[in-house]
Task: structure prediction
Amino acid sequence: MPNVIDVTGKVVREEQTPEIFSQEYADKAHTIFRAIYREMASPRAGTASTKKRDEVSGGGRKPWKQKGTGRARQGSIRSPQWTHGGVVFGPQPRSYVSDLNKKERRVAFVAALADRFRNDAVTVLDAADFGIEKTADFATLLFGSAKNAKSGPSTLVVFGRDEQAGDRIHRVGRNLKKVGVTHTGALDVKDVLRYNRLVFTADAYAQLVGTLSSKNGEAK
Result:
């Protein structure tokens, strides 16, 4: 069950783990892998390009006659074995987009979050009165002290989409080396598993549980 903390870091209560995250997803490891592969591969530009033999300029004339020179026969100085020649089987522009249907994306996202709930790696922050202005104070909230922020667990702070305190949380957390800050609309499987601990604001937590608990909840 995730703890709910206030802006001083004090635990004020415990939240019941939502039913959707209490289920067993041990057999969904491959679906999670495919979701992460999709998220990492799809943004690749795929613009690497080399020239084949027929695309390299020059080399239209035979460098020497076929017989009588004592040298190996050559048809063009742009053959692959020549310096400045064409490239054999080199990379060509391509798309790295990997498809995964919405149902599988949702299952992978829920399974990744369920793993974090199962390992007590989820905390809820009551950010209704969030007034922290300094990064050091935010580090103290998350790790107990600013010094511990250098050796503490990597932490992802998630605020709700359009949440009023979102900009302030992003501003005070962006310079902490082991802290990532995002919002519910951008959270994906890769982010969930990259960090050792997740800290959701109360608004973000409510949005997440409400969306995923609904039958047609959107996948990331």
